[in-house]
């Protein structure tokens, strides 16, 4: 009986313990299955191929397991994965095989493909990093399932699409980094309002658009907000001021408008504030800035801020960098800026600041960068102020109105690497103490009034890479010590009064790429040693008195691209045109003789005009690699036949030579370029200008057409000559009589009317009818001496009429000015000089008929808020180029030269394409090289040569 009871108790106990026995026996098997799947997933990725001999994956690099052997962390960023495209696909790692994964870091593995949706199965994941890869596609909406996620990094990929609103469910998120992708769309307000734990939000460098949502102001824990380099527009929301924990705010490079909200003053913990490169307007409010006492870096550059720079900036004692450049600030620089003793970089360039440079800047002893260029600052550079700035590395005060001498104390700034003082009114000599700046790499003193010689101490600047002393009044020779500037890449000494020869020591400058010595009085030959500078790309020695031959050693300058040796006295043309990269060569206005080298086909733009070259032009069609596109051989002694291949060039000028026109080339050129015998040719392709033909006595062979007409010509030609002599005699007599009458009435407004054809006839009646007898409604501008009218002629063409006021037309001096303008404009033809179609000198009215300019004057464009927005820097540079081309043409290519003497922004007109055209030649003067300056002042004060103003005051 007892045995039965014991057996019964044992059976009951066995039944009770059976489930735990079963679980115990099954659990290790289940855990083994899970870890085996993880093991296989790691192996199949191919990323841990080097660990196949280690059975336990928990000992592999980049893998971390929990106590049960399940993978919780994966970070294989430093594994030596083979560079196979197949192994670089993110899908190679089956992420769903790791149910206990908490930490996944695949940063910088050059992974491709799209973010797998299976990643949403990792519900325990708190840290996900997929940064610095090549991932594409959109962020999967299933990512909302990662509710435990604290840090999410998807930056520096090629992700597209929009930010999914499901991100708003990740309420534990602290770091959200999505920068440097191609994400588009808007920042959805609901997506971020729930992320109340967020401290760091970065969506910069994407293509996000729309407005910045005000709900960002609800993220009270936010410390870092980066939205820069997107397409955000509209106002910066006031609610940003609620982010009182914010330390860094980056909103640069967007299209934000409006003013800076005053609520930013509540961000007392802010250390970095970047609002640059937007369209923000208004003023820097003093109260907004005074509370930001922790601020270290303030950048509001490249906006449209105006007004004065507030003195309260001086209260930001922790400020290290202050960038206010490219705005519309005006007034003086406040002396309180001198209180910013921690300041290292101060940039105020490209504003409208006036007054002098405050001496308080001398207190900024930690300053390394001071840029005040492109303002209206006057006064002098105070020597004592700069003697304290011993840490200064960059100093730029160019483009102002500073005067006086360059202080020699600048030579004490031993750390200075960049010094730009150009485009001011500095005078006196270049201080020799600048030679003490051993770290100097960039020295720009051009466009001042400096005189004297170049100090030889500049030859001690062994680190100098860029030296510009052009457009001054410097005299004397080029120092031989310049040969010690072995780091020099760019040397510009043009537009001075330098004499002597080019020193052979210049050949030591082996790394020089640009050399400009033009417009001086340099003599002698080009030293052969110069061509040791084999890296030369741009070379301009024009407008000097250089002589001798052009040395063949120039071919050693392998990379030479643009050579200008024009307006010198060179006599021998060496065959140097073999440089493989050379594109433009100008040897015009020399004394070159001999024949043209056969290598002209390898030059894109070649000008050999105004020389004494002879012989035939070499063929260009035989070379398959010919790149010749522009050729000017005018004013030489060339002979021989013309080649058909010339018709393929964009520009060719063969005028004033002695060519043979026996060959019929008419079919090769456009219809308007008719070739008669004995023609001079100046030909542009369509859309440039016209084809000009003039007849001279050329050497030509007998043509069958001339043989057939020879008996006829022998009879008719004498008769035609006799008739022409009679007609010319009659016309000459009539002209003399008319000129006598005209001269007697010229000061009394005699009648004279001449209008050239302009796509049809233009009659006086057409002009009166088109303007309704100069009605005020057609007036588009009025000046001190006349008004300008817009007239649409019957042909549909639009012209501009410059009509003198009646009172002015009675004044003999303005009558002279009128004749002067007509005389000037009838002699010149240039694409950047306004075209004159005709004129009228009559008792009733006096006017000029001009080419119509749709955009008006440059003065109007610069002073109109809407127009000036369209004048970006590239267009402004093109305008300056157009003006420079026009003035260069007048000064150097007109015979005699023409001096405008009143180039102002009001006398520069703009067409519909914003191209510049110089106008108003009423005060222009033909320059007689043998005459001295006249005593009368001509032009607008402020725009005329100082010498002429001084002369008029003395006398």
From TrEMBL:
GO terms for molecular function: ATP binding; protein serine/threonine kinase activity. Residues 1-23 form the signal peptide. Keywords: ATP-binding, Cell membrane, Cell wall, Disulfide bond, Glycoprotein, Kinase, Leucine-rich repeat, Membrane, Nucleotide-binding, Phosphoprotein, Plant defense, Receptor, Repeat, Secreted, Serine/threonine-protein kinase, Signal, Transferase, Transmembrane, Transmembrane helix. It is found in: Cell membrane; Membrane; Secreted, Cell wall. Its EC number is 2.7.11.1. The keyword Transmembrane applies. Residues 774-955 form the Protein kinase domain. One of its GO terms (biological process) is defense response. GO terms for cellular component: plasma membrane. PROSITE patterns: LRR, PROTEIN_KINASE_ATP, PROTEIN_KINASE_DOM, PROTEIN_KINASE_TYR. It catalyses: L-seryl-[protein] + ATP = O-phospho-L-seryl-[protein] + ADP + H(+); L-threonyl-[protein] + ATP = O-phospho-L-threonyl-[protein] + ADP + H(+). Pfam families: LRR_1, LRR_14, LRR_8, Pkinase. SMART domains: LRR_SD22, LRR_TYP. Coiled coil: none annotated. It comes from the Eukaryota. The keyword Cell wall biogenesis/degradation does not apply. The chain crosses the membrane at residues 712-733. Gene3D superfamilies: Phosphorylase Kinase, domain 1, Ribonuclease Inhibitor, Transferase(Phosphotransferase) domain 1. It is a peripheral membrane protein; Single-pass type I membrane protein. ATP binds at residue 802. Belongs to the RLP family. This is non-specific serine/threonine protein kinase.
């Amino acid at each position: 009986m007892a045995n039965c009871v014991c057996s019964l108790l044992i059976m009951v106990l066995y039944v009770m313990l059976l489930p735990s026995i079963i679980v115990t026996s099954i659990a290790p098997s289940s855990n083994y299955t899970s870890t085996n799947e993880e093991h296989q997933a790691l192996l199949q990725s191919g990323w841990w191929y080097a660990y196949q001999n280690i059975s336990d994956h928990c000992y592999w690099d980049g893998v971390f397991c929990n106590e049960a052997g399940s993978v919780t962390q994966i970070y294989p960023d430093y594994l030596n994965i083979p560079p196979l495209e197949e192994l670089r696909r993110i899908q190679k790692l089956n992420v769903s095989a790791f149910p206990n994964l908490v930490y996944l870091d695949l940063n910088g593995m050059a992974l491709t493909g799209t973010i797998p949706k299976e990643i949403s199965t990792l519900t325990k994941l708190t840290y996900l990093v997929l940064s610095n890869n090549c991932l594409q596609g959109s962020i999967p909406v299933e990512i909302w399932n990662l509710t435990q996620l604290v840090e999410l990094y998807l930056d520096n990929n090629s992700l597209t699409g929009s930010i999914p609103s499901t991100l708003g469910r990740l309420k534990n998120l602290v770091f959200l980094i999505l920068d440097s992708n191609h994400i588009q769309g808007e920042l959805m307000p609901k997506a971020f309002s729930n992320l109340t734990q967020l401290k760091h939000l970065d969506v910069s460098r994407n293509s996000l658009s729309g407005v910045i949502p005000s709900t960002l102001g609800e993220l009270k824990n936010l410390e870092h907000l980066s939205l820069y380099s997107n397409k955000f527009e509209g106002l910066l929301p006031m609610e940003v001021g609620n982010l009182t924990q914010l330390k860094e705010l980056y909103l640069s490079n967007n299209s934000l408008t409006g003013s800076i909200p005053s609520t930013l003053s509540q961000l007392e913990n802010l250390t970095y504030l970047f609002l640059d490169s937007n369209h923000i307007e208004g003023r820097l409010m003093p109260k907004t800035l005074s509370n930001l006492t922790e601020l270290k870096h303030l950048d509001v550059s490249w906006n449209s801020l105006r007004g004065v720079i507030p003195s309260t900036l001086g209260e930001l004692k922790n400020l290290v960098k202050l960038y206010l450049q490219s705005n519309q600030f005006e007034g003086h620089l406040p002396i309180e800026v001198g209180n910013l003793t921690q300041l290292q970089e101060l940039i105020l360039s490209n504003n409208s600041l006036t007054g002098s440079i405050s001496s308080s800047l001398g207190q900024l002893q930690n300053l390394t960068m001071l840029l005040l260029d492109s303002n209206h600052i006057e006064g002098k550079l105070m020597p004592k102020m700069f003697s304290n700035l011993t840490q200064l590395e960059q100093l730029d005060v160019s483009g102002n109105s500073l005067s006086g001498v360059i202080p020699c104390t600048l030579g004490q700034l031993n750390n200075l690497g960049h010094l730009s003082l150009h485009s001011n009114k500095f005078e006196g000599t270049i201080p020799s103490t600048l030679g003490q700046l051993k770290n100097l790499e960039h020295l720009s003193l051009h466009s001042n009034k400096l005189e004297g010689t170049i100090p030889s101490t500049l030859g001690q600047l062994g680190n100098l890479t860029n030296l510009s002393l052009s457009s001054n009044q410097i005299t004397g020779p080029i120092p031989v010590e310049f040969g010690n500037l072995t780091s020099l890449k760019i040397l510009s000494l043009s537009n001075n009064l330098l004499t002597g020869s080019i020193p052979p020591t210049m050949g030591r400058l082996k790394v020089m790429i640009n050399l400009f010595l033009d417009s001086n009085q340099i003599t002698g030959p080009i030293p052969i040693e110069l061509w040791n500078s084999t890296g030369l790309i741009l070379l301009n020695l024009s407008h000097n008195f250089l002589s001798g031959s052009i040395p063949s050693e120039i071919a050693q300058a392998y990379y030479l691209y643009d050579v200008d040796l024009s307006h010198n006295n060179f006599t021998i043309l060496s065959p140097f045109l073999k440089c493989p990269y050379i594109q433009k060569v100008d040897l015009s206005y020399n004394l070159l003789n001999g024949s043209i080298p056969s290598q002209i086909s390898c030059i894109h733009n070649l000008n050999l005009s105004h020389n004494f070259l002879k012989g035939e032009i070499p063929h260009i069609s035989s070379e398959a690699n010919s790149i010749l596109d522009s050729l000017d051989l005018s004013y030489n002694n060339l002979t021989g036949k013309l080649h058909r291949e010339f018709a393929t060039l964009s520009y060719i000028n063969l005028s004033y030579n002695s060519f043979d026109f026996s060959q019929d080339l008419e079919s090769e050129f456009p219809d308007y370029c008719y070739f008669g015998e004995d023609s001079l040719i100046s030909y542009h392709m369509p859309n440039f200008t016209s084809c000009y033909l003039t007849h001279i006595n050329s050497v030509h062979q007998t043509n069958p057409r001339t043989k057939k007409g020879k008996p006829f010509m022998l009879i008719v030609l004498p008769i035609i000559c006799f008739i022409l002599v009679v007609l010319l005699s009659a016309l000459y007599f009539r002209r003399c009589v008319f000129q006598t009458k005209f001269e007697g009435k010229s000061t009394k407004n005699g009648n004279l009317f001449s209008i050239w054809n302009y796509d049809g006839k233009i009659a006086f009646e057409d002009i009166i009818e088109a303007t309704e007898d100069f009605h005020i409604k057609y007036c588009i501008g009025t000046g001190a001496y006349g008004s300008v009218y817009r007239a649409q002629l019957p042909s549909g063409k639009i012209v501009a009429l410059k009509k003198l006021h009646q009172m002015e037309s009675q004044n003999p001096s303005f009558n002279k000015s009128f004749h002067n303008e007509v005389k000037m404009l009838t002699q010149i033809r240039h694409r950047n000089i306004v075209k004159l179609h005709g004129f009228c000198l009559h008792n009733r009215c006096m006017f000029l008929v001009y080419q119509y300019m749709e955009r008006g004057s440059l003065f109007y464009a610069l002073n109109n808020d809407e127009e000036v927005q369209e004048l970006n820097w590239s267009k402004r540079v093109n305008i300056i180029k157009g003006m420079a081309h026009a003035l260069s043409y007048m000064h150097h290519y007109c015979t005699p030269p023409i001096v405008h003497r009143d180039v102002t922004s009001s006398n520069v007109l703009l067409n519909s394409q914003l191209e510049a055209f110089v106008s108003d030649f009423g005060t222009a003067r033909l320059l007689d090289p043998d005459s001295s300056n006249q005593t009368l002042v001509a032009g607008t004060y402020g725009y005329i040569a100082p010498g002429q103003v001084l002369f008029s005051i003395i006398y």
